[in-house]
Amino acid sequence: MALFRxxxxxxxxxxxxxxxxxxxxxxxxxxxxxxxxxxxxANAPTLMALGDTQLxxxxxxxxxxxxxxxxxxxxxxxxxxxxxxxxxxxxGDRWDPRSDFMPFLAAYYYGSVPDPxxxxxxxxxxxxxxxxxxxEKWRWLAQAVFLxxxxxxxxxxxxxxxxxLASLPVEMPSWARQMPAFVSLAQGNKEAAYDIxxxxxxxxxxxxxxxxxxxxxxxxxxxxxxxxxxxxxxxCQSE
Length: 239
Hints:
Layout: H1 7-26, H2 44-48, H3 53-66, H4 82-95, H5 101-108, H6 120-130, H7 138-151, H8 155-166, H9 174-177, H10 179-186, H11 190-204, H12 210-224, H13 227-232
């Protein structure tokens, strides 16, 4: 055993032995799902990305995109902590308010969670991201209306979001301006839906494509007005 008279060789041997014992003891174990980690503070870019907010934003986005799907594990969306996810999205929005990556992730990935009760943080974030009067950010607010209207079936919330959408001072298609009318009709408030649609026709008809004007006229005459009212309304009279 002259080989083991050298302390370094003894240390190497003991290290391999300890590793072997440890490997046998943890065989078959897997890392447990710790759910969504707490969102970072405002100083996170300094701490985790040397002050680079773009690096922090992209790192957080990649983490959220792959969270729960690693090590051979796939976690169902219903098992995520959506309150923590909402805080991550909001923090990412502060790091980069122009990027559409996190809104896209929130709307089309996490927004598909089967339990609509979990969608509140996602809707709140999309409404925040979609309220900016730049580019086509309004589309995220429209997505928030969709989630509230069709996934949560919360017409009051959907109407509030739709009103915010329609009042944005940006260029958007007429269907986005008509969102409050669609929700009002779903609420049974035909008068409000009628007033909104007629108001758009009076102020914007000359700027709209003919097919959009035709759609609005048809919507008023066949969905909002009853047969008796439509039969005498000038807008619904065919040539």
